[in-house]
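From the pipeline queue, job 12 of 40. The input is one protein chain; the requested action is below.

Action: predict structure.
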Amino acid sequence: MLLPYLNEELIEAGCDEAGRGPLAGPVFAAAVILPKDFHLPELNDSKKCSERLRYRLREIIEEKAISYCVISIDPEEIDRINILNASIEGMHRALKGLKVTPQHIIVDGNRFKPIDINGEKIPFQCVVKGDGKYSSIAAASILAKTYRDDYMREIAKEYPQYGWDKNSGYPTKEHREAIAKFGITPHHRKSFKLLPDPELF
């Protein structure tokens, strides 16, 4: 059972991202503020939910959330500032996109940077494996994952040979074989090791 919040007295936002590991596509980040009495027993870390459940949970989260925001950071920016910074920047933008300013932030993982919203520094707490501990982080993980999957399915129509509709841009054998055969696309992250042997390019 997930915990409803870390700080009961404060307006708390949960943050997470999806897509740090893929070779192609943006990284997506989400921020969610849930009501204090929010209760959804099936909610969990997106990686522990079936695809069908994720999309059903997304509908409920979007309907019940006090506020939520999902944004993406494109491969060019990932290449320019690196994937860790891109993930943190994405979460910052998602938090700034909330219609309600949070008084406290809980973030999945162990890395984050101080954030200033409307001239105010908002305190935050990193929580390792937080998407399996707190409802708002789990909700953010569901939104980030499903929005990213939607995006990858869309760009897969233009580049079907890479299998992004199935692998979401992750470094599967099929994906790497397609890179070796067809080369890279504008959606690939050039700063990543796209192939085990760079000479294949």
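Job complete. The domain at 12-200 is CATH 3.30.420.10 (Nucleotidyltransferase; domain 5).
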